[in-house]
Amino acid sequence: MNLDFTQIVPYIPFMLEGIWVTLRFVFFAILFGFIIGTVLALFKIGSIRPLRWFADAYTSIFRGTPLILQLMIIYFAVPQLSGYDISPFLSAILAFGLNSSAYVSEIIRAGIQAVDKGQTEAALALGVPYRQMMTDIILPQAMKNILPALMNEFITLTKESALVSTIGYLDLMRRAQVVGADLYRNFEPLLFVGVLYWSMVMGLTLIGRFVERRLRVSD
Amino acid sequence: MIKVENLTKKFGNNEVLSNISTEIKKGEVVSIIGPSGSGKSTFLRCMNLLEKPTNGKIYINDKDLTDPKTNIMQVREQIGMVFQHFHLFPHLSVLDNLTYAPMKVKKMSKAAAQEKALDLLEKVGLSDKADAYPNSLSGGQKQRVAIARALAMEPELMLFDEPTSALDPEMVKEVLDVMKDLAHSGMTMAVVTHEMGFAREVADRVLFLDHGVLVEDGEPNSFFDAPKTERAATFLEKIL
């Protein structure tokens, strides 16, 4: 037992930089996943059969295979097929975004379906067109219901983002490993980035609570 | 105003409305009554195509609703509907509930829509609730807001689907009073109700449905005092 945190001090700026690196692709992956997920959810509840079929198949594939496999396929296998040398940053956004959208679409679908059917009927009876009904009446109510589940998904994504260390992307996790290899000491850098991950998740949790409170004004 | 010809509605093999024909004239108030499961709500919901008729025709101002070429959204603008469970938009304030459709559908300006909304809220006695959210209102207040919301679209016809059935007894009157005022102002109304007092006092005509069949169609006093059919007589015996 000889923990010595002084040794990692010179590496702290290097590891802190990992926060930014991680956050940058997590942000885009969440955004990307959310947009695609919303579209897929609308496909699933819509009446166009091929789109429904597509969304279901999509979800089945991305939920049914390991995320790390999807990441590896995009980073290592796609270049082999297309000849396009994809960067770790782009493959990370793609893999995490596409994967997350499968989960998000299920969350949003459930949220939309949980909105009282009477809301749709009231909007239709007033002559409100489908699109406006969705954006102004149904989705805002659905969002309120699904926010906790959505926050969970975002938190999971933030933590799972550590998987990108396997494709050589210099994120928080990878940086801890680099420092560990340099010092021949692993506990200190791993514990350090562990605290950083936890802080990031806490930040997300607080944002989520804030948004939830804002949405609850109508109760 | 509205003409129904041989309307039939089936859910799967279950025929809930059989061959109904009737007419509601402009300014007329028609009560639709009958035992539960008689198809009266379905009948009402067919009139703005919330339920799609299996067979038959519905004309509103000589426009055939069942014709696929008819723009149903445009027709619905002219038909207000009030539901048993209100269905106010819970994330919008009372005022926004009233102004939403006029602004979005009729492209009314915000100022004009708000003026109209405040005017209607005064009519239903809820001027002080403009900024409240629906969840803070009592059932009777919610239903009065729902009536005002439908009226904000300036409909030519109002459909009421058991508007007082979900209310506590002491709140029924405040809603019925609003409906009475509306009837006296000349609005064309179709009201599915269990309030026989309202049907007798306010309605110009009573439609009695049983098992999806229009059994009686006539003037309220003669219907209540001397029903022509056995089925109506049995029904009235049970509830009066």
Task: Write a short abstract of this structure.
The complex is a heterodimer of chains A (219) and B (240). Chain A is mostly helical and 219 residues long.
Would you give an account of this structure?
The complex is a heterodimer of chains A (219) and B (240). With 219 residues, chain A is mainly alpha-helical. Chain A has a single domain, classed as Orthogonal Bundle (MetI-like fold). Helix content of chain A is 79%, strand content 0%. Chain A has eight helices and no strands. Chain A has helices spanning 12-45, 49-64, 67-82, 88-114, 117-125, 130-160, 172-183, 187-215. In chain A, helix 4 (88-114) packs across helix 6 (130-160), helix 5 runs antiparallel to helix 6 (130-160) and helix 6 packs antiparallel against helix 8 (187-215). The N and C termini of chain A lie far apart (54 Å). Chain B is α/β, with parallel strands linked by helices. In chain B, the strands form two sheets. In chain B, strands 6-7-8-3-9-10 form a six-stranded mixed β-sheet, with helices on both faces. Chain B has a four-stranded antiparallel β-sheet with strand order 2-1-4-5, covered by helices on one side. In chain B, strand 1 and strand 2 form a beta hairpin. The longest helix of chain B has 16 residues, at 169-184. The chains are: A mainly alpha (219), B alpha/beta (240). The interface between A and B is medium-sized, with 21 and 28 residues.
